[in-house]
Amino acid sequence: MFIPLLIAVVVGYLLGSLPFGHLVARAKGVDIFAVGSNNPGATNVRRVLGHGPGNWVLFLDALKGALASAWALLAHTTVSASVRFDGTFAGLSFHVTGPDWVGVGVGGLLGALLGHAFSCFTRFRGGKGVATGAGGFLVLFPLGTLVAAAVWGLTLALTRYASLASILAALALPLAAWLLHGSLFLLGFTVAAAAFVIVRHRANVARLLAGTESRIGQTPSSPP
After folding, report:
1. DSSP assignment of 79-137, as one string?
2. Contact call for residues 19 and 8 (beta carbons, < 8 A)
3. CA pair distance 136, 34, nearest whole angstrom
4. Which 8-state DSSP code applies to residue 30?
5. What is the Cα–Cα distance from 144 to 178, expressed in whole angstroms?
6. Which has more pLDDT, 105 or 134?
7. For 81-127, how does the pLDDT look when each residue is reduced to its tens digit (9 = 90+)?
8. Alpha carbons 125 and 56: distance in angstroms, whole number
9. What's the Cα-to-Cα distance from 58 to each of 35, 39, 78, 105, 195, rounded to whole Å?
10. d(CA 34, CA 145)
């Protein structure tokens, strides 16, 4: 188990380190680390460059989290085809060959979160891990991710604070794991991931408390 887990963390880190926000902004002639909130996440890219580039960054950041988790499921899944006596095709069946895929998938997502936040390609600067975490958990815990996404969307609609929406969504994920899944291992990781996201938002928390946090569609009111 140790070697697959180590490989998953390393591969996940390299996937997570891909700095899509930085690359998309640089293609537009912008240094994303020097404008807006100085963050390469989708929210800042959208604020600076518009919805199109921001949505692309959101998709790509979520995709790298999903890929970091999904390969473990694929590596531990067998596919069998059923054929009837008359030679016609009956269908495909999928079977997870062991319980370890969850641990390896979590290792991949852990690496992706660390890579996204501390990218080796951008001098260990990076984003806050919300989109990357959402993509990974959509593979590992889809129902809980949908609950967290609903909390995110409702909070954003009511307050227009992307940071507050992300924090509350992060808190909703371990609650959903506790109520819906029952796995202590997954519950522990959702708690750790939520803590990671909240710590990465500590500057936003300070601005929320001070009343200076920017809302969606509004330029930052104070330097980060």
Report:
1. EEEEE-TTS-EEEEEEEE--THHHHHHHHHHHHHHHHHHSBTTTTTB---SHHHHHHHH
2. no
3. 28
4. -
5. 10
6. 134
7. 555 555 555 555 544 444 456 778 899 999 999 999 999 999 999 99
8. 20
9. 18, 13, 31, 21, 21
10. 32
Range in 62-71, 122-131, 132-141, 173-182 with the lowest mean pLDDT: 173-182
Helix (H, G, I), strand (E, B) or coil at 214: coil
Please tell me the distance from the alpha carbon of residue 65 to that of residue 217, in angstroms, as a whole number. 26
In terms of C-beta density within 10 A (0-12 exposed, 13-18 middle, 19 or more buried), how is residue 184 classed? Answer: exposed
Residues in the chain: 224
| 76 Cβ contact list (under 8 Å, min separation 6) | 96, 97, 98, 100, 101, 104
Question: Per-residue pLDDT tens for 15-43?
Answer: 999 999 999 999 999 999 999 889 999 99
